[in-house]
Amino acid sequence: MFFKRYAIYMLTFICTADSYEEPPMCVVNTAISVMAYDYPREKLSVNVSDDGGSKLTLFAFMEAARFAAHWLPYCRKNKIVERCPEAYFKSHHSSFDPDFDQIKMIYESMRARVENAVQTGTIHCDYITNEGESEAFSRWTDEFTPHNHPPVVQVLLERSKDEDVTGHMMPNLVYVSRGKSMNMPHNFKAGALNVLLRVSGTMTNAPVILTLDADMYSNDPQTPLRVLCCLVDPAMDPKLGDIHTGCFFRRGVFFGGPSLETPEPNHQVNKSINSKQVLAMAHHVADCDFEKQPNSKWGIEMGLSYGKLVEDFYTGYLLQCKGWKSIFCNRKRPAFLGNSPIDLHSSLNQLMRWSVGLLEVAFCRYSPIAFGVKSMNLLQGLCYAHLAFSSLLSIPITIYAFVPQLALLNSASIFPKASDPWFLLYIFLFLGSHGQECLEFMLAGETIQRWWNNQRMWTIRGLSCFTFALVACIQKFIGISTFGFSVTSKMH
User: Fold this and answer.
1) Most CB atoms closer than 10 Å: which of 132, 159, 177, 309?
2) How far apart are the C-alpha atoms of 208 and 219, rounded to whole Å?
3) For the chain, how big is the Rg over CA atoms in Å?
């Protein structure tokens, strides 16, 4: 009762960019897991950004909306903790619940239809159940391409109209594919999230926003309750802007500093999110021309910041510089789980992209080593600087990888002899640094094997993605080339 009384409107943003590298069923499981939160349905909305503009993703979420009408009451009735259907059925092969086989059959049937559509690249006419769905797919004309198309905003579930199979209200579910043009920059994920900020402002204007990646599903249905305790506690710092279990933000953090009058809403839009007026405005703010308006501050002073490949790190860093505070909530049961890259090549490609982005932040006008330490406390600024400049470690690592061999070939000695008085200092520093890191791993509940694997990956990163990231940044700064964005494969 207390929870329902003080619950505030919450909005979830989920981003996907490629229906083949990020399978729609992966994104669907993420969305369904947060739709099934232990949270008042009338105060919950889920907005999905499909930056690939794929009708296959839209079809997957139409199927997800139908399945959610069965899944949400099943979770509520059985007090399920694993609200992600895929994770639940992998860990539960049978149940005494008579509804288990039925709900699993419905899920498997949905998955078969979605995967068949992705595999064939077409949506069978038998899968389209009403005229509204047929009209939605009619927007994908011959001129519609992933990089050049008008905006698409489709309301799949509306809490004031849609109910589950037991008659309870369903949360909002909205599909958004922002407009794109080959002649305009789209600013990667930061641009997609800013479109969701504007579209959601026309629909619900919820004051709390959770941002998730496509493969980052909920592992704890009580997470919103823990976040709510921080947000409504009068003893909390009024400058509290974000809470890290995933990433929960106050909407106001994207519109200025805590000392400014920000347009953070204290009200919600009361019109139907499926009304013509609301949808017209949503399509207007999702169009690629919207940010071309004179004096537009999107990506500079409003929304997520543009210009860097690591938009999450850069935006979070600038929020701290503006004076916003954050809380890190690290519970024993993780609030979210997700997929890692499927092979070494994908992992190193992802790490290289992050490393390039971090170097962009390191050498920009808001560098943590200069601007950061003046805008926040010294220790926090140095922590950001440590991350931003981490790719520079490739220089000593590369030197250490080749110099000993060259010295050996030339019969030169570069290490102290055992009889040298300084030898004990080298031993102390070597064992001390590695021993400290191993101890930290052990205290965090990890194993020595995990620590050893981390050491191996650190060396691999230093000789590969760190080095190439440094070269890529040098090429960018002297105007030779620009590093692009690629989606990390989630296919298994």
Assistant:
1) 177
2) 20
3) 25
50, 51, 215, 242: the active-site residue: 51
Structure tokens at 366: 């808001």
pLDDT-based confidence at 293, cuts 50/70/90? Answer: confident
Per 3-state DSSP, the chain is made up of helix, strand and coil in percentages (nearest 5) of 50, 10, 40
Nearest to residue 176, comparing CAs of 82, 340, 52?
A: 52
Q: What is the pLDDT of residues 179-235, one digit of tens each?
A: 999 888 889 999 999 999 999 999 999 999 999 999 999 999 999 988 988 888 888
**C-alpha atoms less than 13 angstroms from C-alpha of 430 in its C-beta half-sphere:** 7
- What does 319-384 look like in DSSP terms, one character per residue? HHHHT-EEEE---SS-SEE-PPPSSHHHHHHHHHHHHHHHHHHHTSTT-IIIIIHHHS-HHHHHHH
For residue 16, give the H/E element and its range. strand 10-16
Q: Do 172 and 205 meet the contact criterion of CB atoms below 8 Å apart?
A: no
Phi and psi at 82, nearest 5°, equal: -85, 95
Check 50, 215, 220, 312 and give the catalytic one: 312
Q: Are 404 and 398 in contact (CB under 8 A)?
A: no
Judge whether 51 counts as a catalytic residue.
yes
SS3 188: helix
Q: Which helix (H) or strand (E) holds 154?
A: strand 152-157
Considering only CA atoms, which of 235, 147, 238 is closest in space to residue 184? 147
> For the whole model, what pTM was predicted?
0.91
Give the C-alpha separation, 105 to 85, whole Å: 12
